[in-house]
Amino acid sequence: MSIRQGYVADWRGEEYEASPDGDEVRLYRARPAEGFQEVTSDRYVRVVPFGEVTRLAYVSTHCTWRGEPFLVLGEHDGWLRVEYTGGRAPVAERLGLELFDRGVYQAWAPREEVTGMAEKAV
């Protein structure tokens, strides 16, 4: 399962990474296509009116680790960067999580210990 976190938009029957900006939405893709401008060799963008987008959602990947709920932020060499979403400081401290910011606890979790990975869109 791929780990996604960010906006996505449906436009003309396809899903794109997206970035809403007022009355417009920037759509991104990895390969050239008509109407898309090259940003880098593997990143192309097209700006469309918000009204042309049939769905705009924020997608995030969630999981369970050590019996507690987490948000998956990224992955590197079989490890997942996770952020505790349970909201209970004593639990975060018991788990030995790093205090990233006030009330925000994160850790590197071995991917094989993580269960229930699922994508949520809002």
Describe the structure.
The chain has one helix at 89-94, and strands spanning 6-11, 14-21, 24-29, 37-40, 43-49, 55-65, 68-76, 79-84, 98-101, 104-110, 114-121. With 122 residues, it is mostly beta strands. Strands 1, 2, 3, 4, 5, 6, 7, 8, 9, 10 and 11 form an eleven-stranded antiparallel β-sheet that branches. The chain starts with 5 loop residues before the first strand and ends with a strand.
Please describe the topology of this protein:
Blueprint: E1 6-11, E2 14-21, E3 24-29, E4 37-40, E5 43-49, E6 55-65, E7 68-76, E8 79-84, H1 89-94, E9 98-101, E10 104-110, E11 114-121
Antiparallel strand pairs: 1-2, 1-6, 2-3, 3-5, 4-5, 6-7, 6-11, 7-8, 8-10, 9-10
Looking at this protein, list some descriptive labels.
mainly beta, 122 residues, elongated
In short:
This protein has one helix and eleven strands.
Tell me the major beta sheet. 11 strands, antiparallel
Judging from the principal axes of the Cα atoms, what is the shape?
Answer: elongated
- Strands, count: 11
Order of helices and strands: EEEEEEEEHEEE
Question: What integer value in Å does the Rg equal?
Answer: 18 Å
How much of the residues is beta strand, in percent?
A: over 45%
Q: Helix share of residues?
A: under 10%
SS-derived structural category: mainly beta
Give the low-pLDDT segments: none
The multimeric state of the shown protein is single chain
Mean pLDDT: 96
Number of H/I helices: 1
| Spatial separation of the terminal alpha carbons | 19 Å
